[in-house]
């Protein structure tokens, strides 16, 4: 059985949990991270030298980086529905997975830490506003994409990209600030939040 190391409050851990639900994969999860088992130990760093969650253990195979874990699980257990086999369709999923990790997440990180986690290290008002401005800008990029597809991020079908970006959209709505109205994002979120994997692993956690 798969083992997932990481606390449920981590958005990156929830990516993996949701993917397992979509793929019908049983797993065991152990709480690691702030407030739980310490990731800054030699034992954990032997699994992930970055001392970060999630970590996936599949028999003798150990893997870290949440989007890499998503791809691995789909490559091993999916029939191409979540992660298409065709080069063009797969590249589109990869593009939005990478955009979520490198652009969208980086934009909202500071604002989320200040407004939800109440981190004293992220309390500078100007930096919070800068983070919100960047977040709004990238959400408008997503809005444009969803207007084009009329459905999901990579096209007409739900994919791995929607697991990653759907969680970021969830965090958008769960963070207290005045949200610009984005019709396509609103519709997308209503579609995403009805999925059983989202209901099981994402509701109630910002």
TrEMBL record:
Recorded GO MF terms: transferase activity
Keyword Transferase listed: yes
UniProt keyword terms in alphabetical order: Transferase
Family, similarity comment: Belongs to the GST superfamily.
Residue ranges annotated for the GST N-terminal domain, each copy included: 1-81
Domain GST C-terminal as annotated: residue spans: 86-206
Gene3D superfamilies reported for this sequence: 1.20.1050.10, Glutaredoxin (3.40.30.10)
InterPro entries linked: Glutathione-S-Trfase_C-like, Glutathione-S-Trfase_C_sf, Glutathione_S-Trfase, Glutathione_S-Trfase_N, GST_C, Thioredoxin-like_sf
PROSITE patterns the record matches: GST_CTER (PS50405), GST_NTER (PS50404)
Species name: Comamonas serinivorans
Name by which UniProt lists this protein: Glutathione S-transferase
């Amino acid at each position: 059985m798969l083992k997932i190391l990481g606390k449920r409050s981590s958005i990156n851990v929830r990516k993996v949990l949701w993917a397992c639900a979509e793929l019908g994969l049983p797993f065991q999860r152990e709480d690691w991270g702030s407030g739980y088992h310490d990731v800054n130990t030699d034992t954990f760093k032997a699994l992930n030298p970055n001392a970060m969650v999630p970590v996936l253990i599949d028999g003798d195979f150990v893997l870290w980086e949440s989007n890499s874990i998503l791809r691995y699980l789909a490559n091993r257990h999916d029939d191409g529905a979540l992660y298409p086999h065709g080069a063009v369709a797969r590249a589109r999923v990869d593009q939005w997975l990478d955009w979520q990790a490198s652009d969208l997440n980086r934009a909202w990180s500071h604002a989320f830490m200040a407004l939800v986690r109440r981190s004293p290290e992220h309390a500078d008002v100007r930096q919070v506003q800068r983070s919100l401005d960047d977040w709004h800008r990238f959400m408008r990029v997503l809005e444009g994409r969803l207007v084009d597809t009329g459905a999901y991020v990579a096209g007409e079908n739900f994919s791995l990209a929607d697991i990653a970006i759907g969680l970021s959209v969830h965090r958008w709505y769960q963070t207290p600030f005045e949200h610009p109205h984005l019709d396509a994002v609103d519709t997308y979120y209503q579609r995403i939040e009805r999925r059983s994997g989202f209901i099981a692993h994402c509701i109630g956690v910002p």
